[in-house]
Amino acid sequence: MKSGSSIYRSIALDLAQRIINGEFPEGTKISGRSVLAGHYNVSPETVRKAIALLRIKNVVTVSQGKEITVISSENCYSFIEQYKSNETVYSLQQDVEILLRQKREIDAKLEALLVDIINYSDRLRNLTPYNPVEVEVPETAPIVGRTLGEIRLWQHTGATLVAIRRGTEIIVSPGPGVKFEPCDRIVLVGDSQVLKRTLTFITHES
User: Fold this and answer.
1) Which of 6, 63, 130, 180 supports an S-S bond with 2, CB 3.0-4.6 Å?
2) In what order do the strands lie in the sheet with 131-136?
3) Are residues 135 and 84 in the same domain?
């Protein structure tokens, strides 16, 4: 739904376009506010604001008897161009505000996930002999492009994969179908030797 500001500006724009099209030549008297209000299905006050905008741009004059007269069709062109420029700037501002709001929402979700993982890791540290560790997958690692189910990580290392950090994305409790990508940081739990066994496995696995 358009705001009140958008409505009266749109009416002013429509009247300017009608003047350019010759519907209201210079010197023509335009219908009063009440008639225009009925035509556009708005209040007389909204029409008054629209006419005031055209008067400021020297498109029309308004007599003390509230008679509206067209004085310049040429000024309509500059008014329409200015309107379009303002609309473009406003649209860009709206896009930026939406993107910033989305970024804040994503940042908040990421922060919440990180807190959950940290808390989860802290709890696991107290469950001996399990110790959470984090390992980065080298770009040339044989597991790149393969799934968790294919490499059988737990069977070869005794490590349980609890999360994958991929850039700003965090995959919690990844399933067997998740594929490893270069530079993934995998969070594992296992005994005191799990880090050594995992590093050996992911770099030499065949």
Assistant:
1) 6
2) 131-136, 185-190, 160-166, 169-172
3) no
Contacts (Cβ under 8 Å, ≥6 apart) of 119:
none
Cβ–Cβ under 8 Å, residues 70 and 59: yes
Total domains present in the chain: 2
Residue 164: which CATH number? 3.30.70.1450
Please identify, among 36, 61, 90, the residue that sits at the C-terminal boundary of a domain: 90
Q: Which domain holds residue 29?
A: 4-90
Q: At 164, phi and psi to the nearest 5?
A: -130, 130
Mark whether 82 and 133 lie in a shared domain: no
d(CA 60, CA 40): 18
- pLDDT at residue 88 in the model: 56
Retrieve residue 155's tokens. Answer: 């069977």
* pLDDT in the model for residue 142: 92
> Over the stretch 137-154, which tens digit does the pLDDT of each residue have?
999 999 999 999 999 999
Strand partners, 131: 190
Q: Which residues of the chain have pLDDT under 70?
A: 1-5, 85-92, 95, 118, 120-131, 205-206
Which helix (H) or strand (E) covers residue 114, if one does? helix 74-125
